[in-house]
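Appendix B: complex inputs.
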Amino acid sequence: MAQAVTSHRGPVTGTAARARRRRPFLVDLYSTAVGKKYVMGATGIGLMGFVLFHMIGNLKMYAGAADLDHYAHFLQTLLYPLAPKGWVLWILRGGLITMLFLHLHAAWSLTVLNRKARPVKYQSSRDYQIANFASRTMRYSGIVILAFVVWHLLDLTFGVVNPEVGKMITHAGDDEAVKSVYASVVYSFQRTPVALFYVVANILLGIHLFHGAWSIFQSFGWNNPRFNKWRRSFATGFAALVVVGNVSFPVAVMAGIVG
Ligand code: HEM
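Resulting structure:
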């Protein structure tokens, strides 16, 4: 049965139209559902790049303490002496925080828009073609990943829950002492509940990435039956690569392969 549609808009008069201030194009675009999807997609690509490179960087753990610590030191001293130590890393962190904020804001405001557009649930069963479970749990997997990132920073960056973070070492050719990333990672994963939390959070990250990597094409309108099979393989391959790499670290420490 058709439902009555009530509009909360006032009458559009010539005076009202003239009085309306023009907003910058990007702000105007972001106020639409399509604009928010573009932002989700673009920031999603950036965050996917981060998790992929973060995982690849952490593979240094298998080469030993010196290699991982050297890599962390390399990140700290990017472009040094052209730029003071840590500056480039802070610029990259700024980009990461901005992308994360926009990703969360777009997700939240799309949810609000969806609820406003459809206050009544679908009555018939939906014909979901792909990623049924992953697509419908994006909000929940996203919330757990966010909680994981907060824990992860308290654990390995700020050392609030990890006494090894204070352990200092020096690198050849640089007198300044820096913290040993390797020691703090190994200490972290030697605590079984923490290691298991990393495993569970990274499996959820994989589910989130699978649907995210698939949806990017939809958000940008690159949706064509000719390459839908390719999209699925890309989403599966990308998510699997990140999950297998990330889950391997706590498992390797628990198994005594790294220590
Ligand atoms: C088992 C997998 C992982 C390991 C072993 C790992 C390890 C590390 C290490 C050693 C650091 C550097 C700490 C420091 O020196 O300050 C770090 C930072 C960080 N990690 Fe992870 N990480 C893992 C998974 C993840 C995942 C899945 C995410 C995101 C979803 C993530 C997000 C971050 C962020 C945002 C930082 C801070 C970067 C910075 O401040 O420079 N990590 N991680």
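The mean pLDDT is 87.
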